[in-house]
Design brief:
By secondary structure, the chain is α+β, with helices and mostly antiparallel strands. The protein is built from six helices and 21 strands. Strands 11, 14, 17, 18, 19, 20 and 21 form a seven-stranded mixed sheet that branches. It starts with a strand and ends with a helix. About 10% of the residues have low confidence.
Length: 374
């Protein structure tokens, strides 16, 4: 049997979820015929057959996450050794501390019960854990010398039952978890906030387009925020064009497609580009190359709600601008109170490479752009 493994999908992707099989054992296929569709962190990708032949075996069921290099399809023919699939970290393998009174029923697997660490439990207790579908390595022992008792397993089962069904993160949500973990560990993030008075806008002004224009103004005034940072060399790249990442909320998770060279596009072209990438994201048909290479991110969460936020900078970018919900606010105009329309802004920047002065000057340029009559 010839084995076809999950190929390298590019963009640093190391795993994919099997979304749909287009073949079954016994089918005859030609080179280039679509074998299956997989969902990666960035897009749905169809994988073609590398050979002509007859399908003998499908190694992976639908909805399973597999690593690059894992066996996918067995073709009838010369026997090859099936490579061992790399182990994939189970996002749900570690259960955090769950308290009941002053007792901790379940602890992190990083602290107790690691495989090979010598879990103390008699066969009857192990059998009970298996019956109740409790990972015994996650149970905190209360017996002598760290022995796990029947009551320990039962309490853990009750706690897990109250917590509900474990749902492993898939696709975009799994990618978001990895990206946010990396960002939190790596970036020295600082957020500054302020409001822009938009009372002079004409009715029907396209809010998102005005925000994009304001980001362009900010980047032109302070190019340091339209950059990538390399922590290994402690160097930065000031980008020649403003390629803007647009945060798009979907039921499957957060996507950040990119609008290229926004400074050299008119409003109509930008609006058409926005509609296209949003449609492609919702259809999960956006090409992977349109999800990379942005230099700064805009998150217009105010269309949903919220005033200020603390957006997260995703390396290698160094800044993200968040726009909150537009509201009426009483401001002092020439010493007199007046009701004005304002949009709250939150700018998070990576303080390893961007100074506070650069960030605030960028934000002031954004505010000045937004405050102009449309």
């Amino acid at each position: 049997m010839k084995i076809f493994n999950l190929p390298d999908l590019g963009e640093g992707l190391v795993e994919a979820e099997i979304l749909e099989w287009h073949v079954k054992p016994g089918d005859e296929v030609k080179t280039g015929d679509i074998l299956l569709a997989v969902e990666t962190a960035k897009a749905v990708v169809e994988i073609p057959s590398p050979w002509d032949g007859r399908i003998e075996k499908l190694f992976v069921p639908v909805q399973e996450v597999v690593a690059v290099g894992s066996p996918l399809v067995g073709f009838a023919g010369t026997a090859d050794d099936i490579p061992r699939a790399p182990e994939i970290e189970d996002a749900g393998s570690v259960v955090g501390e769950i308290n009941r009174g002053d007792e901790v029923l379940v602890e992190s697997a990083t602290e107790i019960g690691k495989p090979g660490s010598g879990i103390r439990a008699v066969p009857a207790v192990r059998a009970l854990a298996k019956k109740l579908k409790v990972d015994i390595s996650l149970v905190k022992p209360s017996g002598p010398d760290g022995t796990i008792t029947t009551k320990d397993v039962e309490r853990a089962a009750e706690t897990l039952a109250r917590a509900g069904t474990l749902e492993l993160l898939r696709g975009p949500r799994r990618a978001m978890a990895h990206a946010m973990t990396r960002a939190h560990a790596e970036v020295a993030d600082v957020t500054v906030t302020d409001d822009a008075d938009i009372s002079d806008w004409r009715e029907g002004t396209d809010i998102t387009i005005r925000l994009i224009r304001a980001v362009i103004a900010g980047c032109q005034h302070e190019p340091a925020l339209n950059a990538w940072y390399d922590p290994h060399t402690m160097g930065r790249r000031l980008l020649k064009t403003v390629d803007l990442g647009m945060a798009v909320d979907t039921p499957e998770g957060l996507f950040v497609p990119v609008l290229r060279d926004v400074a050299n596009r008119d409003d109509e072209n930008l609006r058409a580009g926005l509609e296209r990438i949003k449609a492609d994201v919702l259809a999960r048909s956006i090409p992977p190359e349109e999800m990379q290479g942005y230099g700064i991110i805009l998150s217009n969460y105010g269309v949903i709600g919220g005033r200020y936020s603390d957006p997260i900078v995703v390396p290698p970018t160094v800044a993200i601008l968040g726009a909150g919900r537009i509201r009426d606010q009483v401001l002092a105009i020439d010493g007199k109170p007046e009701v004005r329309r304002v949009v709250p802004l939150s700018l998070t920047f990576d303080h390893r490479v961007v100074t506070g002065g650069e960030a605030t000057r960028f934000l002031m340029a954004v505010i000045e752009s937004l405050s102009r009559e449309s």
